[in-house]
Amino acid sequence: MIVGYSPYVDSIADLITTQQVVTSGMMQESQRCRAALDAAKAGKIVALISSGDAGVYGMAGLAIEMAASTGEHIDMEVIPGVTAANSAAALLGAPLMLDNVSISLSDLLVPWEMIVTRLEAVAAADLVVALYNPRSKKRVLQLEEAVRILRTQRSGTTPVGIATAVSSPDQHLVLTDLDHLLEQEVGMRSVVIIGNSTTCVLGGRMVTPRGYYTEKM
Asked: How crowded is the C-beta side of 21, counted as CA atoms within 13 Å?
């Protein structure tokens, strides 16, 4: 049995043969987990589908929490995948070569005040940051605030990579900088990677040097 958000299940259509498929829309994560857990409890082998890695902004944590809250003992295997940040980084070059962090700008589940605190800490620590859920039709100010916070600690020429709709026919990549980020098209299907003070663009690729190469070019 396969359970998942409709677009994610569509992305694995070539792997589906005779399995029963249960899909639902956005904001129905709990219902999907419940359906998967109930089916597993009934003896079915169930695949609960996430995009990227199920343990990174995915469904693994919720499924484990829900099973634990009712005392259910269900054998689960979290299968690692490729996160959106790693997929974006590979397409953009190698911006995550040094210490980095991922932050979602969606305040549906985390108070915005907490997100601001984390952004301020990331800016002060000079970490490369991958922003998930950077902007939507209704939520546009969060990315502007994130840029303002990061600009207090790093240059406007800091390289920025935007990867949108990765691995789909609509895939689109942009290399820009912090001062020009807000001029770019960024949506919910985008991952925005903002470099640190050493990040550079080499041959059209975004790179954060780790320090191996010390000879002068």
From this structure: 16
Q: 48: which 2 tokens?
A: 């609960």
pTM score above 0.70? yes
Residue 177 belongs to domain spanning = 84-207
Please tell me whether residues 40 and 96 are part of one structural domain. no
Structure-block tokens of residue 49: 């589908």
Mean pLDDT over 185-210 rounds to: 96
Q: What are the tens digits of pLDDT across the range 15-39?
A: 999 999 999 888 899 999 999 999 9
Q: How far is CA 150 from CA 29, 84, 124, 156, 177, in A?
A: 32, 21, 8, 9, 12
Average pLDDT, the chain: 94
Residues 6+ apart with CB under 8 A from 85: 56, 96, 100, 102, 130, 132, 191, 193
SS3 letters across 41-62: HCCCCCEEECCCCCCCCCCHHH
